[in-house]
């Protein structure tokens, strides 16, 4: 046997031994991949050894080739087995780190609560939706037309003094009531209509225990043929009975520019009369502006402050408590 042949056999045997030892010691998949490239890659150690086959006698080459194939197969087998082992270990370690002990007590997360104003609006909406009303919405930034003129309140009307309005530089304003929603809805829908319009309103009130510059209002509107004040009265009585229970109710004559006749409604609460809402039959001028024939259709409207209802029903002494976000207060509801 020639010296070159013996040398190649020794190199192949040594490579096999070193490769198997290195593969067994590999701790990561990345390290294992580096070993594969180092031993079996195009420029790996096995390829470098086989370059010496060109100097062998033709009869010795098959012998070295067979040994090289055996070495390559053994190294590949060792690599594949080690890869499976490392992957299994990796999965096991991940499962161990992500295992949850379902017997351990959970982390307490306090439940949120519905704000008393939202709860009061939801309660009112449920009542009127149950009576066949549709919820309507509109913009909080309004034009003078929808907030005043279309509601029978022209620029020189004295009723504008009843409401201190926030006017904006562009000529628009922050709505002082949700009645503007009624006009927008009437313009886009033919009668009969029955809507309830909840939303935020703005007035330049001095803030104290019973007044706020920002407040919430709910208004209802019904337009149809033959509606009378009796229909309004019955609707209001049903609503107030659902809200306050069986309590005495009285209607007092009042004035609103967009209803005629108009009334304010009181309930007897804790031994005294308490004003809770305003209402009336829709003024014929409002019907004309919206495009309705007042000779054919009549309607009624009513509105009330959500804060007032919340303060009465929850016995809240100061309206400002509703806006402080004090959890000690809110957790009571």
Describe this structure in words.
The protein has 333 residues and is an alpha+beta fold. It folds into 2 domains: 96 residues; 215 residues, Bira Bifunctional Protein, Domain 2 (BirA Bifunctional Protein, domain 2, 2-Layer Sandwich). Helix content is 43%, strand content 20%. It has 11 helices and 10 strands. The strands form 2 sheets. It has a 7-stranded mixed sheet, sandwiched between helices. β3 and β4 form a beta hairpin. α1 packs parallel to α4 and α2 packs antiparallel against α4. The protein is rod-shaped, with a radius of gyration of 43 Å. The model has no long low-confidence stretch (mean pLDDT 86).
> How many domains would you count in the coordinates?
2
Number of helices: 11
Give the CATH architecture of the largest domain: 2-Layer Sandwich
N-C termini distance: 98 Å
Going by helix content, strand content and strand pairing, the class is alpha+beta
Fourth CATH level, the homologous superfamily of the largest domain: Bira Bifunctional Protein, Domain 2
- Annotated CATH topology of the largest domain: BirA Bifunctional Protein, domain 2
Strand order of the largest sheet: 1-5-6-10-9-8-7
Instruction: Please identify the top-level CATH class of the largest domain.
Output: Alpha Beta
Mean pLDDT: 86
**Binned strand content:** 15-25%
Give the total of beta strands.
10
Low-confidence stretches: none
SSE string: HHHHHEEHEEHEEHEEEHEHH
Shape: rod-shaped
Indicate the radius of gyration in whole angstroms: 43 Å
How much helix is in the residues? Answer: 40-55%
């Amino acid at each position: 046997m020639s010296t070159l042949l013996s040398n190649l056999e020794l190199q192949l045997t040594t490579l096999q031994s070193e490769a198997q030892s290195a593969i067994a010691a590999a701790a990561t998949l990345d390290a294992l991949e580096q070993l594969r490239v180092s031993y079996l890659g195009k420029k790996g150690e096995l390829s470098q050894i086989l370059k010496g086959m060109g100097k062998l006698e033709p009869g010795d080459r098959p012998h070295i080739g067979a040994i090289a194939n055996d070495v390559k197969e053994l190294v590949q087998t060792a690599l594949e087995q080690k890869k499976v082992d490392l992957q299994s270990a990796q999965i096991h370690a991940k499962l161990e780190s992500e295992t949850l002990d379902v017997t351990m007590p959970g982390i307490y997360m306090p439940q949120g609560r519905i704000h008393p104003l939202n709860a009061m609006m939801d309660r009112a909406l449920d009542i009127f939706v149950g009576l066949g009303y549709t919820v309507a919405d509109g913009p909080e930034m309004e034009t003078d037309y929808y907030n005043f003129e279309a509601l029978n309140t022209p620029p020189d009307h004295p009723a504008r003094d009843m409401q201190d309005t926030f006017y904006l530089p562009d000529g628009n304003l922050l709505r002082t009531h949700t009645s503007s929603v009624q006009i927008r809805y009437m313009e886009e829908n033919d009668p009969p209509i029955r809507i309830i319009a909840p939303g935020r309103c703005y007035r330049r009130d001095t803030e104290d225990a019973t007044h706020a510059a920002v407040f919430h209002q709910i208004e209802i509107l019904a337009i149809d043929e033959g509606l009378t004040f009796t229909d309004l009265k019955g609707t209001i009585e049903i609503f107030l009975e659902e809200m306050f229970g069986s309590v005495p109710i009285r209607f007092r004559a009042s004035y609103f520019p967009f209803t005629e006749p108009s009334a304010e409604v009181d309930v007897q609460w804790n031994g005294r009369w308490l004003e809770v809402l305003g209402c009336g039959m829709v003024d014929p001028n409002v019907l004309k502006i919206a495009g309705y024939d007042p000779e054919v259709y009549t309607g009624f409207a009513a509105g009330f402050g959500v804060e007032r209802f919340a303060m009465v029903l929850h016995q809240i002494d100061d309206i400002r408590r509703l806006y402080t976000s004090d959890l000690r207060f809110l957790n009571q509801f």
